[in-house]
Amino acid sequence: MSGNWDSSLPAPLSALLEALGYAPSDAVIRESTVPALRGTNVVLLSPPSARYAIPAMAGLLGSAGPESRVLVLVPAFGIKLTPKHYAYLKISEGCNHRCTFCIIPSMRGDLVSRPVGDVLKEAKALFEGGVKELLVISQDTSAYGVDTKYRTGFWDGKPVKTRMLELVRTLGEIAEPHGAWVRLHYVYPYPSVDEIIPLMAEGRVLPYLDVPLQHSHPDVLRRMKRPASGERNLERIARWREMCPQLVIRSTFIAGFPGETERDFEATMRLIEDVGFDQSFSFLYSRRPGTPAASLPDEVEHETKQRRLERLQERINREARAISARMVGRVERVLVERPSKRNARQLAGRTENNRWVNFDGPASLIDAFADVVITEAMPNSLRGRWLAPAPRPA
Ligand code: SF4
């Protein structure tokens, strides 16, 4: 439920929805069945738009003035579907790219960036609501604001551009008093991303990037019509690492795209080894009806695809295990999420580079940060010892 709307408001619901950028089909209106709210309409917004619409809707309804009979039943940070300590922040919908294997552009259309002021307002409300980790998501985070020509919006009374650099810098500023993490997903290796890396080196946002490359060979990337396929990705990533040695890069890869030869596939294998991607995913290509790639010739045989996928995942896992092994002995800041699944007397949390760590500690640490020294690297997780803060002198 997104909130309650009193039909005595002068503006019809359709106008409110339109102001928020939603079509009438996004909403369902029901008369409230709660006795105390009889005669009040309840507005339900359909996912995925619902989650980020809620704060905006609540704010708009709440601004109708004290004399109105508006009732807003949602907390300022909206209704979260995730646990208390983390939340997703969606900054745009749709995508301007036309990757040949992807159905999203035909389903969601071109990129539409949310106004920067709304995004930052939602982030602040989430941090104030107890969120310790904000995951910034979109189809292409690096393209944020392209559709608005980087329009200037306002935040906290000051102008701020609808652009990735300004967004990330301001998110870091808003997160700082809460000691919270900001994690960026779905970033393409464009030159403009170079500007973000210093913010990571300075610790303003997590030194972590999810860069979905899918492949390395230029012929395959051309057939895939991938963003940044003409860029010198390896050189760019090497430069990022010079600027921020602790940078963690995760990616996704596809094995067996139509026409992929052994030579093409080996290029991806080499890239994974050269970059040292962390905890990446790999997928076996399968034709998706309605996508341009579905009609490409030279389908790769299933057994070949399967064999390449296994090699790909084994290489990815090897890189991830090597990174885990290098973490042993280091003190890591861990966001404690829950009791451990294997041993309910232990706690489980995630490190900055998104690895699970199990360790002994009091349940009061759940939803908070803890400093943990890594004692052992397991295939899929780490073990650690909590560094309890020294007791205060009496
Ligand atoms: S960038 Fe991502 S969402 Fe956009 S078309 Fe390519 S795969 Fe699809």
Q: Topology of this structure?
A:
Layout: E1 3-5, H1 13-19, E2 27-31, E3 41-45, H2 49-62, E4 86-90, E5 92-93, H3 104-108, E6 112-113, H4 116-128, E7 133-137, E8 152-155, E9 158-161, H5 164-175, E10 181-184, H6 197-201, E11 208-210, H7 218-224, H8 233-243, E12 248-250, E13 252-255, H9 262-275, E14 281-284, H10 302-327, E15 331-339, E16 346-351, E17 356-360, E18 369-377, E19 382-386
Parallel strand pairs: 4-7, 7-10, 11-12, 13-14, 17-19
Antiparallel strand pairs: 1-3, 2-3, 5-6, 8-9, 15-16, 15-18, 16-17, 18-19
Helix pairs in contact: 4-5, 9-10
The structure holds iron/sulfur cluster.
Written overview of the protein:
- There is one protein chain.
- This protein is 29% helix and 22% strand.
- It has ten helices and 19 strands.
- It has helices at 13-19, 49-62, 104-108, 116-128, 164-175, 197-201, 218-224, 233-243, 262-275, 302-327, and strands at 3-5, 27-31, 41-45, 86-90, 92-93, 112-113, 133-137, 152-155, 158-161, 181-184, 208-210, 248-250, 252-255, 281-284, 331-339, 346-351, 356-360, 369-377, 382-386.
- Strand 8 and strand 9 form a beta hairpin.
- The longest helix is centred in the last third of the chain and has 26 residues, at 302-327.
- The structure holds iron/sulfur cluster.
- Iron/sulfur cluster binds next to helix 3.
